[in-house]
Fold each of these.
Amino acid sequence: MAAALCLAGGLARAQVDTTGIYSDRTDSLQATVFTGDAAGTFLSKGKELRTEVISSVGLMKMACCNLAESFENSASVTVGYSDATTGARQIKLLGLSGIYTQMLDENRPALRGITAPYGLSYMPGPWLESIQVGKGSPSVVNGTESITGSINMEHRKPNDDRILYANASVMHDTKTDINVTSSLQLSDNLYTVLMGHADGNFVSFDRNGDGFADEPRLLQLSAANRWLWYSPEVQVRWGVKFIHDRRRGGQIEGPWKSDVGNNVGNAYLKVGRSLAEDGSSSIAVVADYTLQKIASGFGHNAYNATQHAIFANLLYRNQFSDAHDLMAGVNLTQDFISEDIVGGGQSLSGVRHSLTQIAPFVEYTFRHGEELSVVAGFSGTFIPGYGFRPVPRLTAKYQPIENLVLRLNGGRGVRFTHPIADNIGLLSTGKTLTGDLAQRILEDAWTFGGNATWYFSETAWLSLDYFHTRFVSALLPDREAPTEIALYTLDGHKAWSQNVQADFSIEPVERLTFSLTGRFTDARAWQPSGEIREIPLTSRFKAVFNAQYKTRANRWIFDFTASLNGSARVYDFMKELKNPDSGELLYPKGRTPVYPLLYAQVTRRFRGFDIYIGGENLTGSMQKHPIINASDPFSSTFDASSIWGPLMGAKFYIGFRITIWK
């Protein structure tokens, strides 16, 4: 799980990477993890938790400028916009908001608190080696905040074989993306990787004629430096990252503007030491610190905040034998948050929060060869003001025959709410906000599920899974009224989501692959009206088809992705909205329309150089009139946050990649 054997290129003795960087895989320090022939997206056969892996090859299937845009080939993760003015992206997993999915940066909690609304754009795709999407309740080693699953991002390593990797692309609407990474070996024991990123959108367009820019003008700059020092007994990994993000949207000529500025700094340290010559016992310490400052305005509304986020982990591992593995330790999560909020008739200044969680944990893994493995974890989190909350989790994987893998999973998750950051779109409205905008309640939920995967061959498989999440407590927005949004708690009432998904992949002939995924979601929650209703703007189903063909020696690569996105219930006030051009109801059945999306890319590969062209949303599917009452943005009925579909039509791009190997 969080530790794996690493071989030091040429050293005979295996070492335990307790820091969790090379989780669940055994690699040479000189080896790259994914090659040009690796599958783009696949289900991990060896992991106990149902895990979908998007490799570096999968990240190249689209322009893939950042993490949010990496999931267009996935039906597991749905990506949308939080509003129509800032470009902030949000995801959903198991039919629920991405705030219930734990984001991990090489197994360290990331994109938390006030970072969440814009954090998905802070992870450039070309920086990443792979993305691992785990459904259900993951390991307690990484904390207790996961409810629906986890998304772990593996960055390019300091010991990577590529001394230079560069990627650049430009959209036809001037959006430009540039990325550079360089891995260097400075001595027999010391490695480093430098990473740089810049992207910008320099021209505003108003294709639907509502007076608002379809996308904000933005400039984002980020840089990171990661290090590895290695010896047979000790591994030390550390690094820093800095991000500057500025985005300006709103009316092109009118007074309503959105202006968001984010500055983020991060530093981390991981130290792992082997306690036994055979690497069966080890200890590790992990420390991570993030500072973020945000200054933002949305018309007359504003949100300014500062967050100091600290995560520390002490981990001991003892692998008694091939069958018995024990990990124990303690996690400390500390957030200091200061907020100034102006919105919806409320004005809060100098609101301060100190959120502390101390979570000792123990996790035992039993393995019976390749046939059976059981992971039982227990964490008890101590939270001032809430006392002790037990967080048990259990995962089992059974492989009765070579071609069949069965999984069961269940567990609890708890997390603090962040009313504005969790619902940043609320500020892109003129509506009255009721409820305490500064309250931090503890959300509590259980998730149970299972998965069955049948492998026809190494390149063909069929997978079925079902997951159910049920909330004990939660903070939710009631947005059904036309001029008011109310934050409310469940107070013992019900809220749940159930999710069924089927995945099929096959390579019918050499170098030609097809994959088809279908997902059905039923997500419902109690509302103050007394009804239990379908959660609005959550599509009931999604289907994704992907085809890829490679010519000999991978000189040409052709990618095609099509998705069909199901309808979702709209808010009650949206049922009366009319098309200003025709006077017809926009949502006559109280639901959004079903819409398709098409993506295509062609890549020509040379020695160390690739050039690619592609298109996104080739069907031109768009949400009609996404901004409600755009002609009067300071009225109580103005709403730029009720977004369920694409905001832009077809987009085309061209780009290149350069790779220089050691």
Note: The chain has two helices and 37 strands.
Amino acid sequence: MQETTVSAEPFLKLKDLLNTYLDPDKVTIILRAFEIGNAAHKGQTRKTGEPYIHHPVAVAHILASMRMDHESIAAAILHDTIEDTPLTKADIVREFGEFIADLVDGVTKLDKMKFRTRIEADAESFRKLMLAMSRDLRVIFIKLADRLHNMRTLESMERPSRRRIARETLDIYAPIADRLGMNSMKHELEDLGLANLYPWRHRTISEHLQTMTGHREEIVGNIMAAIEKKMDEASVPCRITGRKKSAYSIYKKMLAKDLSFSKVTDFYAFRIITQAETQCYLALGAVHSLYQPKPGRFKDFIALPKANGYQSLHTILNSPYGLPIEIQIRTEEMDIMASKGAAAHWQYKTGEDADGSAQVRAREWLMQLVDVQRHTGDSLEFLDHAKSDLFPDEIFIFTPKGKIIDLRQNSTALDFAYAIHTDVGNHTAKALVDKVEVPLSTRLDNGQMVKILTDPDVQPLPEWLGFVATARARTAIRHYLKSLRQEDTVALGLRLLEKALNARGSSVEAITPERWDYFLSENLLERQEDLFHDLALGTTLANMVAAKLAPDSNLFPTDKDAVEALSIAGSEDSAVSFGACCQPVPGDKIMAFVSTDKGVVVHRVSCQNVHEFRKHPDRCVDVVWAPITKGKFPVAVRIIARNTPGVLANISASIGRADSNIETVAQPEANPEQATLLFTISVKDRDHMARVMRRLKRNSYVIRVNRVG
């Protein structure tokens, strides 16, 4: 087989570019990286048929065009060596040091053989990438450049692979580029993604755009001349450019707003680049005096930068040609930041960017992601969290001290609390929006001021997961509930074992350390807590464990009163559940069944399922209500009422006046005279339930009321 000849031309072009901004000694290091990478990839080719080394050199060229530092360029040339060649990280450390080796390792994917599916492997690779990014932001610059070159050469892949890679690019990598403020890269990734995912749609939109641009050249020239004249009159030094809409942005608007192509593209777009921030506002005033602005269509991203650090003034004007004009106004520095984002000033290596810079904002975002992944055990769940924040429209919310917190759209007051700090979110008692108390589930609007009041006794509730919108809040709530559940189940498991041992005339304290060690070792358990957890979940039965821990004890102690029933207070949270079939409330006679999938489930003794439970006595547990119970308990009530207007509101009011909340309501059947209503209401105990029922019976609309189950 004939060996593919490696052309030096790509590297020579890279070298020429590097010499324009890097010192000779830095270029020498990159040359050494090329020599080692070229040798490592010798004999390897891409799907295109060209030598493999051309790919990492092209990736390095993309980074060099962004004026990245020499370590990033060297790592880009070596970025596939650990994965695809015999070269190891240790080899790279010896040759180039830890910094470059860590960058290469950060970009390297994981071994897919460790995972059950490709999706799982890709999710874990993404998780690894995010963690590497948090240590050194340059990892993602290399990865994005790698993805961009792969997208540019994707035509050599099979159609299914092209679609998969294009979808991944649009779902993950283009949004990451957007989050980092790297708009130029984002737009190219999106355009290439659409072209490979939906070739016909991309081609049709692109052809229409070219045709439309040609038809409007004269109008565009007239508008630009008018703007230039107005800027001269206002003494605003600037340059003005026409701005093209991308095929992908048009495609997204057509989908989102169900618009035709012409309605999406019917406007002119221009960009005014000034030399100073004050000149941006002068330019804004000038264009507003030239053409009438559209009400409500002005956005100031200079005073309130986007989450990715993007700064610009956006305004839409009415043109004399019957179509709107969109104008963006920014400084030269803002324009560079809009294009390159967090990578814009990396080569200066200051590490002390201004507080609002793209790098600082990117770092803050990454730290939030690291916090999310720390409490997320599953890679697929972490990927979902990250994708949900990649990245919707932002809203800006103010703290009482004037600090700006940026959140995703549809965020609630509780999301705001978690954005301040996890402990604030976990103990949020009240939220004041513009000084008015609102429910924690209230959706926030741009520019509102929110104050959070905390209470150390408040804890996250499972229902909070139903309305929070941010990954940070969801992960923090789940983590808290999981740790709480662990504590609850361990405590309940201990109580179950104590009860089983008491039945044998023994106790947990009576078991010797030696017997504990032997039992745990025999059952492959590390700690007693692991056993208690299994007991509470029903995967291990307390009676069987008690028989092994205390085999010589009396199974039927003479003092029957010594074996106490397990008390249920309603404060066991997720460790104890209540049967949906009979919905027991304090005051009902109860028993419990230890299920293998639900753990300890409490039922009324009169429940229709108890007969079946009694066939498994080893899983039945004697339980009683504690003297003091906590919380409210759901109970189902069937009401036969007169079918007249306002009946539902009237009955609901009666339930509310009895200090009970309505959880659900349904109307399974009705006729012209009567309606059957099924309510699930919450009560404190059996006495409270009786009070609600008496009040309902006194209601003139109610014919009959009874408890269900």
Note: The first helix runs from residue 9 to 18.
Amino acid sequence: MIKRSLFIYLLLPLGVSAQIDLGKYGSISGSFESNNQLYVKDAVTNAVFPQDRIGSNNYLKADYRFQKISMGIQYEAYLPSLQGYPFVLNDAKLVQKYLSYQDTKFGLTVGNFYEQFGSGLVFRSWENRQLGINNAMEGINLRISPTNNLDLKFVYGKQRKNFDKSDGTLRAVDANYQIIKSAEINSEKSLSAGVSFVSRYQQYTGPDPNFKPTVNAFSSRVNYSDNNSTFSAEYVIKSKDEHLANQQNTNTGKALLINYGYSKNNAGFNLNLRRLENMDFRTDRSADQSQLLINYIPALTKQQGYYLSNIYVYNAQTLGEIGGQADLYYNLPKNTKLGGRYGMSIALNYSRYHALQITSQTPTSFESKFFGAGKQLYYNDINLSIKKKHSAKFTSSYLLQHIYYNKSVVESGNYENIKSTIVVVDILYKYFAKKAIRTELQHLFTKQDKGNWMGILMEWSYAPHFSVFASDMYNYGDAGKQVHYYNAGGSYTTGPHKLLLSYGRQRAGLVCVGGVCRLLPAATGLNFSLTSNF
């Protein structure tokens, strides 16, 4: 306890400094983030009480830049890690370091780095602390631009695995060619094409003499945009890749992603289509959950910011799914009959995902129609949102959402399929130039799972420094145990520094960012966080 407190408070002064400008010798910048929770017993939610009543995740990042050269480190301390993270640690280490040289035609990074090819379907290394994901590469990242239109990337190394490295080694090459550049033809048109090759090698010591330790993936893509429209398409094919997370499936991996968007004046639409087949791709055959992911596959559903809309959220099914989403939006102009003095925005979103249409199946493989949708529905979401500014002080937003949620598939288990309807009214009142009150009223209707929910949020803010809030989600429709998931707290912000303090209950369930999810346990306690950039 003493050791933990000393660590956190010794780092606090580092988070309140301005960026250090060294003049002709360059500059130093960085960030500090500390997320802490004091757990208390709660017989109402049956939350599992951890051995240590405190969880503390801390991150310190520092970068030095001098002309075209940069170097940096990241130090992390889990004392121990917050409950529900995909890894359990009680240690502190210097986990990342890098040295980089970047020019317009050449770039070289040695050490830890993040990279992405295309949309990320074949390769993406990234960090999301809320989800506990950090699959940074450790190795070499080389970028060469031999012409103004051609960019080449070469990646070699191992992925980060908590405080260690993956057993598998990643080798990857990416090429992107700009066929049309706006500056060249004096227009807003742009057209590019690209290819990627990613190879993972992990030594195999098992009994199968025919098992291939190398898995290769190839991707091709095209991107087009002009004044009003955008179009992109990417196709990935991956060799057989039997591992724990895909239940030893031997199918060749395939992925197709097509996006099209059009906007003009006050209206527009976006269309997405995606098909996945055995696209769980990792640097370690024994990894599961969110560990050691090579590629990035978001859910491609509308991400809502309301509590009750995030009870039943979709997680992409990499073993096999087909579906997509459509967005329609229209901004009613100002000073019109429907738009009024300040205008009004309307958005309609629809997403739907099915199982693949299987034509034959064995315990470890299946055959399917490429564009065929199976009868089993995984997820369906139709939602309408309206935002109206009534006056200089008063703005209201409304959401009506209907969801079909195959809980057995998304959360793995044996559950009843869920149909729910969510209604949200969000009211913002700015009664002074920097002072505002926001109120959210929410309700979720369902006859399945734990029944109906209601929610309320009250927030007072004094821009740009203070914010105070209180919220409650009440599961009054649960016949077994009706629970109030209350939360109250406040934050203080000054420049790039933010302090947040709250107390309340955490509902067990999925927490998702961009469609990538992890399962959170129920918890009750005091939360304290500090984020700072310098």
Note: The mean pLDDT is 91.
Amino acid sequence: MLIIDQLRKGDRELRLVAVVVLVSLSILFLRLWQVQVFKRRSYQQSVETQSYRTVRVPALRGRILDRYGVVLAENQPRYRLDLYLDELRQDFSDEFRRRKSHLVAERVKDQIQPNFWERLTRYFNRRQVKPLIEIKEIAQLERQARYHVASNVVQDISRQIKQPLVMDEQKFFLHHRDKRALPLPIVHAAEPLQVARFIERGDSLPAVSLEAHAIRYYPHGTTAAHLLGHLNRSDEFEDFEGMSFDYRLPDYAGKYGLESTFDAELRGQAGMRSLLINSAGYRIRTAEEDSLASQPGTNLVLTLDLGIQQVAEKALAEVGAGTRGAVVVLDPRNGDVLALVSSPAFDPNWFVGTRDTNTWARYINPHFRPMVNRAAMGQYSPGSIFKIVTALALLEDGLDPEAELGVSPDPTRPGRGCTFIGRRKIEDTAAPGPYNFRKAFIKSSNSYFIEHSQKTGFKRVVELAHQFHLGEPTNIRVTQEETGNFPRLEDESEWNKGQFADLCIGQQITVTPLQMAVLVAAVANGGKVFEPRVVDRLEPGDFQSPPPSKATFKPGFLRNELKVKSTNLDLIRAAMRADVEDDSGTGIKARVTGFEVSGKTGTAEVKRGNTLIDKIVWFASFAPFDNPRFAVVVMVESGGSGGRTSAPVAARIYKFIHDRETQASRGAVVSN
């Protein structure tokens, strides 16, 4: 009032002061209105903000390719429907208030109305009055309200995409408690039709979002599964030294095969994202996010030939339903692995998809054991294919290949021969009569090799076997290898004559199909024992990534050269050719017209006491004879014989190779 009165008196100085005061008050009022009204939401959000949370973002995994660039493992986009709980907060609150009001109304209705004196006493003794709703009931109501709202949204999604969906109550509560800042996956792998239906009416569900993410995919299913391996879900990565993450997006680690051996290279470098979280634990989606981009993993290029791999798998499957066996195909010129087959196999896609217990029960079946890499880990007696080693040892010891040895007839088995070590009779599958080296090899006479090896001795045979590195890992690095059971030179005193006789015909010892493939490749190439190589090189995952520090793996790593005469190796190779090409040979079913195959059949008996419980049948081979480029070893459990069961498998593989090379020379393409 004083200011107004002075203004009326016409004092110019006071009028100026008054104007300044009024303008200042107006500015202050406008500023207060801006802060409290216009920017209320912004400041309220700032007040709610508590801290940042770090999220580990996995990198795009590198691809695995065969030697010609055909994809064996890649990343495929998968569409996922996610529910954002932060957008349902108001619905949670409304549903909670509705339930609470309903519960209060029900309890008030059920109570007897107090009289005047009781109401007056209750007014002055409020602490003694029991509340209508307990604190623990409030927590339960909030829990039920949240689940009810989220479950209704899920049912809306179910009707929209026409797929039955059920919200798992326990998973929802755990997600809300621990990861409410992250989206809750509702549909992990939406089909294209479901994606189209959602996009058509997606605006009706504002809390639901369609997200695309990469998932590991093996386009050829079970093909080369034991070589490629599989992934398992993992949250144990330590990508940033000394740093822990509040949240981790789903990631996978290699647990078998090449996916495991080269996991660090394939996995790449994970990225990081920071989320702004309010005091309720929800993500503030409008806030800016700091991020560190992930770096994709490197691509793995193999020596594998997908065409040969697929044909080998098909040929092995044709042996019969539920075939248990292995096939290894090597390039004897440098040790490159062209095919590595183990049957039965598993589907690596199963480990990154929706798992079912029935499939897992098949995978752990103790009889079929599909998770075991029989080619690199299976331990089997080699049977007569070990006679390649025995024969070479005999020739090195001075055996005259033209000299004949008479095989005695078996008194209890007419038409079959036998030999005796002391009182023990060792049966022969070959007929009695005279045998020179070539005839004994292609007829696979046990008696011939046992009687000659008794003169040659333990050390000569075992020492030569060690030149092939039997009893040692091949260092293929596909998975944990088994070395087999093979004696050392210093074990001679522990082996009696009967056990040594068994050793010389491939009993009493165990090897892996991969070891025998390395062995026959060395015979084929003139005595070079190569380390098998399955990885050719590493390549950047994209054009922006730097090249790997170790980009290539040189072929032809020479582990050893056989200390034997070349003429003796020539005799072994000629005998292997005769085993297939000679009409009396045991490997005649491996013949391929125009592609000269050389091989050796074998059958190993598995006994428990004196009871025969299984047969392991083999065919070890190489081709073509004049210029060996392929070494093929086939092993089948519970087979008939090496000649009847395993040789035809090798024949189909060689025929495919021969046809493909013939067609390629004519400019055509051959189908598997």
Note: The longest strand covers residues 71-83.
